[in-house]
Write a structure and sequence with these properties.
247 residues; 11 helices; binds 2-phosphoglycolic acid; single chain; TIM Barrel; 13% strand; 8 strands; alpha/beta
């Protein structure tokens, strides 16, 4: 159950929300809760949640280990703050910052090699969805994004399916639509790797996840969690999401 705070909150605000959240999710031991603050808040937030079960993700990283790359940050530097995950391939990185499948592949490899678990985001745009290209797009994103990575390196990877048309729009895939795509994704991993990898892969859904739709999403067989943007910025709504009711 991951909250992507995107470009919100200074250090004080992030720490405040992290502290509140740590209290609100107390006792939710059968699920993993992850929050992704901005870079400048990572160290303070990992400290704030260190005695809770909450884990921390960075929202991006670069694939080089050091050098003249103004404005970038390495996986080792992120690990140094105490975070354990990094979100890569998010649609906002793909569309606003022109990241392509090749660059995302380099970033995923580098993150895995330095011991950070990638939350690898994929998803089709509205135009691709309308043209019936959803599966072609996600197959391409998975194939190119994970190119050259051995199946034994995939145990920590989380795959986030986020239809771009559902992100921040209030439009959400129906739980059944999301389930259908998640099932296809798991099938693809079975074909490309093996049954074990497919079975163990955590496939999470993102795109306008809210307290009102979380329970229906989480009862779907192949939905293992969610990546939440807007609704993760408020302790009440995110703790309700993290505390989804299993039926
Ligand atoms: P949203 O964002 O929940 O605001 O739609 C999801 C995401 O971008 O991960």
């Amino acid at each position: 159950m991951a909250g992507n705070w995107k470009m919100h909150f200074n250090i004080k605000e992030s720490t405040h929300l992290a502290n509140d959240l740590a209290k609100a999710v107390l006792g939710m031991d059968d699920r993993e809760v992850v929050i992704a603050p901005v870079f400048t808040s990572l160290a303070a937030v990992t400290q704030a949640v260190s005695s809770s079960g909450i884990k921390v993700a960075a929202q991006n990283s670069f694939y080089k280990e050091k050098g003249a790359y103004t404005g970038e940050i390495t996986n080792a530097m992120l690990k140094d703050t105490g975070c354990t995950y990094v979100i890569l391939g998010h649609s906002e990185r793909r569309t606003i910052f022109m990241e392509d499948d090749g660059l995302i592949n380099l970033k995923i490899k580098a993150a895995i090699n330095s011991g950070l678990d990638p939350i690898f985001c994929i998803g089709e745009t509205k135009e691709e969805y309308d043209a019936g290209l959803t599966f072609n797009v996600i197959e391409r994103q998975i194939t190119l994004g994970l190119s050259g990575i051995n199946s034994n390196k995939l145990s920590g990877l989380v795959l986030a399916y986020e239809p771009v048309w559902a992100i921040g729009t209030g439009l959400t895939a129906t739980p059944e639509q999301a389930q259908d795509i998640h099932k296809l994704i798991r099938g693809l991993f079975k074909k490309k790797y093996n049954n074990e990898v497919a079975k163990n892969l955590r496939i999470i859904y993102g795109g306008s996840v809210k307290p009102s739709n979380i329970d229906q999403l989480m009862i779907q067989l192949d939905i293992d969690g969610v990546l939440v943007g807007g609704a993760s910025l408020d302790v009440e709504s995110f703790s309700r999401i993290a505390g989804f009711i299993k039926t």
